[in-house]
Design goal:
This protein is an alpha/beta fold and 350 residues long. The protein has seven helices and twelve strands. Strands 2-3-5-6-7-8-10-11 form an eight-stranded mixed beta barrel. The protein is globular, with a radius of gyration of 24 Å.
């Protein structure tokens, strides 16, 4: 997303080549009758071994962890719900025909509203009302300056956007360091997000790229809008396990709009998109609300349970932690042990 002084796309990761093996599993059918084969036969042992490792594969579709605990992992999600994001320089600086954008197959759009505490996008008001009139799910974003009071920026942003309609989305655009340390950037970004959430009652999104920071400490409790270009599935920073929106290009095109355009997709269905923008009850944390429904038995990591989770990705997260693989193979070993006990029982009876 461009800032006030230059229309530059967000810095992209230099290594976006996925080193992954795709594992495809079919329907697993269980037999209701046992085959009359001796439990101490080689055939049965081979079947037990195959079943155990098949179960391990079904329980874990990962291949490898990509780097350290703070490295990004590749996540494949849904991409059928399309959107764009714009600022005053798009469409040659001319007004955008949002009805034509809707007709072209776009379901949502984000528009730049503010930057720092002294810049309002000149096209925001027209874009904001135009998106609503066209029936698009709309969002407003603030281009963050890490060296400016984050609470003041949040209040400036909210004052510019004004009253929200049900389903409106709010976004922090985090892509410049402004000479600050990573710890300061992350802390100030969280203050901004917490302030917006408390004042508006809406859980804001965080827009960033996987390579922008080494660690996104404190920010994982807010839904992610990830910018990652030239890949089939985006990289997601380790603070998250999935993403809500994906900006897949900064050089796209759409017939109603002239010039290069940012293209986005929503990781969910159209119905789920329309259900966004629900009120929030308290501030964000290091939690991962989008992961809450994935594994109700997962260890508590300090998540914000009140934050509504985004839809689950239908894809396979490539590079889940080693503990997931360990659990799957422990199950495999348990199955082998059960088979061995049954064989011994049969031999003792015979």
């Amino acid at each position: 997303m461009p800032n006030a002084s230059a229309a530059m796309p967000i810095t992209k990761a230099t290594a976006n080549v996925a080193r992954a093996v795709v594992l495809t599993t079919g329907n697993v059918r269980t037999r209701t009758k046992r085959s009359p084969v001796s439990y101490d036969s080689d055939v049965t042992r081979r079947r037990q071994l195959a079943l155990a490792f098949a179960c391990a594969c079904v329980c874990d579709c990962s291949v490898e962890r990509l780097g350290s605990s703070e490295s990004a992992v590749k996540v494949c999600g849904q991409t059928t719900v399309k959107g764009i994001d714009v600022y005053h320089g798009d469409n040659g600086g001319n007004a955008i025909d949002w009805n034509a954008v809707k007709t072209a197959g776009i379901d949502f759009a984000f528009a730049k509203a503010t930057e720092s505490t002294n810049f309002k996008d000149s096209a925001f008001a027209a874009n904001w009302s135009g998106m609503k009139s066209a029936g698009l799910v709309r969002g407003a974003y603030h281009f963050f300056h890490a060296d400016v009071d984050p609470a003041a920026q949040a209040n400036y942003f909210l004052a510019t956007v004004g009253a929200l309609s049900p389903g409106d989305l709010l976004v922090l655009d985090l892509e410049t360091t402004n000479g600050q340390t990573q710890a300061t950037i992350a802390a100030n970004a969280k203050t901004f997000l917490d302030t917006v959430k408390k004042a508006s009652g809406v859980v804001p999104l965080l827009y960033t790229s996987p390579a922008f920071l080494t660690t996104f400490s404190g920010l994982g409790g807010y839904p992610l809008w990830v910018a990652n270009y030239g890949v089939s599935c985006p990289d997601v920073p380790a603070a998250w396990t999935t993403y809500m929106f994906w900006q897949s290009s900064s050089t796209g095109s759409l017939p109603p709009i002239t010039g290069a355009l940012d293209l986005d997709s929503f990781n969910g269905t159209l119905a789920e998109l329309h259900a966004l923008g629900e009120p929030a009850s308290d501030a964000g944390s290091d939690a991962q609300p989008q992961d809450a429904a994935q594994d109700a038995s997962a260890p508590d990591t300090g998540s914000d349970a009140s934050t509504p989770p985004p839809p689950l990705s239908e894809g396979c997260t490539i590079g889940v932690p080693e503990r997931s693989r360990g659990g799957a193979f422990m199950l495999a070993l348990a199955l082998l042990a059960v088979g061995r006990r049954r064989r011994i029982a049969r031999e003792s009876i015979g």
